[in-house]
Write a sequence for this structure.
């Protein structure tokens, strides 16, 4: 595994405080080592969205003129997605689809995809166009300028959560509030539930991340070596096609993750014991 340590080439650079958008001007002296990006798109029955998503993602990343891979990790949806991505991949070897059989779980799919690459920068976004692909360019600029983690955020100025009803808004705010004691003061995200972010591989290292549930970012914020964070605002869009896979199980997985993270933070456990059953 390539290891661009957080404390490596950036060692002499003062760590920026948690920012909502821009980082200070110190970045001008950074070396121009080309960073590579591996962006994972986890999918479960997203055939109706994936073509449009990949077209917009590729257009955005091509304009950045960087080396990248797009890895779709599908949990055996059998909805035609393999053929759609396969056709794009035939013309563009940077795109690929990995199909997991007999397994389920967003976080597990993301980790699985990251393992298929040795890129220095790892990313994830949803397939349903709720995450605007064009934001990738601003997220990329943040990591290229030195941030360890760049998060697409609905909860910083300028961002929004779209058409949620008041109850869902309240639950979302409570779910964030309960994470605040867990997060480090030096890199505290306003939107730790976001599923749209780029992170340096070296910040995750060999952490044994939980595979159950949707909240991989929270675990990285709490257990990863994240020194500097940039949050970039965006409007959480409306799902383009198909249905949400959020369920009561996702809520239970989140509660279980919180419980284990609190125990870990208090030093009661050294690793998080349950990785998640990865079953449907
Ligand atoms: N591979 C995989 N992807 C999943 C799974 N559950 C959800 N996803 C994907 O994760 C992304 C977010 O899921 P979504 O249903 O939109 O969640 P919501 O935005 O919270 O309603 C989408 O791209 C889904 O297709 C899963 O079990 N496996
Ligand atoms: Mg969605």
């Amino acid at each position: 595994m390539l290891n661009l340590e957080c404390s490596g080439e950036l060692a002499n650079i003062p760590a920026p405080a948690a920012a909502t958008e821009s980082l200070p001007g110190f970045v001008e002296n950074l070396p121009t080592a080309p960073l590579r990006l591996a962006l994972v798109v986890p999918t479960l029955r997203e055939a109706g969205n994936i073509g449009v998503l990949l077209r917009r993602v590729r257009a955005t990343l091509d304009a950045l003129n960087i080396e990248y891979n797009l890895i779709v990790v599908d949990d055996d949806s059998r909805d035609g997605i393999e053929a759609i991505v396969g056709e794009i991949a035939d013309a563009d070897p940077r795109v690929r689809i990995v199909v997991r059989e007999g397994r389920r779980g967003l976080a597990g799919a993301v980790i699985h995809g990251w393992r298929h690459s040795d890129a220095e920068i790892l990313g994830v976004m949803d397939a349903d166009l709720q995450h605007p692909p064009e934001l990738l360019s601003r997220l990329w600029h943040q990591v290229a300028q030195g941030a360890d983690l760049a998060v697409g955020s609905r909860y910083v100025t300028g961002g929004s959560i779209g058409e949620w009803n008041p109850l869902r808004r309240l639950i979302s705010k409570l779910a964030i509030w309960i994470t605040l004691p867990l997060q480090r003061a030096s890199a505290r995200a306003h939107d730790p539930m976001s599923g749209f972010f780029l992170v340096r591989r070296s910040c995750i290292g060999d952490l044994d991340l939980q595979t159950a549930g949707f909240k991989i970012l929270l675990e990285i914020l709490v257990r990863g070596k994240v020194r500097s964070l940039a949050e970039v605002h965006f409007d959480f869009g409306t799902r383009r096609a198909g249905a949400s896979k959020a369920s009561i199980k996702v809520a239970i997985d989140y509660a279980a993750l919180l419980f284990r993270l609190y125990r870990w933070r208090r030093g009661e456990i050294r690793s998080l014991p349950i990785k998640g059953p990865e079953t449907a």
Summary: DSSP finds eight helices and seven strands in the chain. The chain has one domain: 36-265. The chain has a mean pLDDT of 88.
